[in-house]
Amino acid sequence: MALHPAIAAGKVAVITGGASGIGLAAAKRFAGLGMKVCLADVSDRLDAARAEVAALSSEVIAVRTDVSRMDEVERLRDAAYDAFGAVHVLMNNAGIGAGGGAFADHDGWRRVMEVNLWGVINGVHAFTQAMIDQGTDGAIVNTGSKQGITCPPGNTAYNVTKAGIKVLTEGLQHELRNTPGCRVTAHLLVPGFTFTGITQGNRAEKPPGAWTADQVVDYAMDRMGAGDFYIICPDNDVSTELDRKRIRWAADDIVNNRPPLSRWHPDYKDAFEAFRLD
Ligand SMILES: NC(=O)c1ccc[n+]([C@@H]2O[C@H](COP(=O)([O-])OP(=O)(O)OC[C@H]3O[C@@H](n4cnc5c(N)ncnc54)[C@H](O)[C@@H]3O)[C@@H](O)[C@H]2O)c1
To answer: Cβ(143) to ligand 1 under 6 A?
Structure first.
């Protein structure tokens, strides 16, 4: 399977949330391909992550960065360009699971919006023009979630951040493809249930239904290589076919004037089940 042209030996990847989970797995994959890697994270694990990645590539830097702060993301961009002279892949991937219900935990709402949504907005604003101006192939990968597409009840704040990332990334790709001479593409990475820091809790073992972060990275590499914008990862419980049905059902809430989130409405339980099995 061909890789996206920005993913190749000698090219540069910047990864936020790179100290753990999907970000760290991507960093190791890029390093293994001979890329130069810049890890960004707030975590105390950042130095250990840099050492892990450095075992695979001689050119790795780590820049402590809180993505919710534009000044820190601009400093990250400057550090990457100072070290490597270019950025070919940007993964706006840092995220937290905080937040709450529609009218709960105002502080949690603010924090999850600042990290998950503003973190990605900051990354897009800080890097995109510079990556276009380089004139090389580039890729901006923003990590969303199925929770921003089908929006299950529970953590509405998190869902809002991920819905925002979807809309931002769609708009970004539209602008990139309409920018003359631009060789940068945007991609929405939507992991399924993945065993990482965010989902681990007290579990030592990966639950059978979850994918590993490496599986997500494998899938993303293949789909980017195929030129896909929407990279909707299945997991061991949820197939691509089931994801498509859930997404279609959610969109049909509007088209068919059903109540919102009807998938979780008792009056529509049987109808969804019939649709799912159809
Ligand atoms: N794991 C899943 O099942 C799953 C599913 C859908 C989407 N996602 C998304 O995948 C992305 C990666 O998460 P993960 O699953 O690898 O979890 P993870 O917790 O292992 O990794 C997230 C990383 O982001 C870092 N981070 C948190 N706040 C930050 C900040 N303000 N600035 C910089 N870094 C910060 C954390 O320190 C951590 O290293 C997130 O955006 C998450 O929402 C995960």
So the answer is: yes
For atom 32 of ligand 1, which residue has the closest CA?
66
147 Cα nearest atom in ligand 1:
6
As annotated, the active-site residues are 158
Provide mean pLDDT across the span 168-195: 98
Contact 94, 121 (CB under 8 A): no
- Maximum distance among all alpha carbons in the chain? 58
Pocket of ligand 1, candidates 15, 22, 74: which has the most ligand atoms within 8 Å of its Cβ, to mutate?
22
- The answer to whether the CB of 4 falls within 8 A of the CB of 225 is yes
pLDDT digits (tens, 9 = 90+) for 66-123: 999 999 999 999 999 999 999 999 999 999 998 999 999 999 999 999 999 999 999 9
* Lookup result for tokens 């990966």: 206
Considering the segment(s) 12-237 as one domain, its CATH architecture is: 3-Layer(aba) Sandwich (3.40)
Q: E strands along the chain, which residues?
A: 12-16, 36-41, 60-64, 89-92, 138-143, 184-190, 194-195, 211-212, 230-232
Neighbours of 135 (CB within 10 A): 12
Q: How far is the CA of 204 from the centre of ligand 1 (A)?
A: 18
Q: Tell me the domain boundaries of the chain.
A: 12-237, 239-278
The kind and range of the H/E element at 198 are helix 197-200
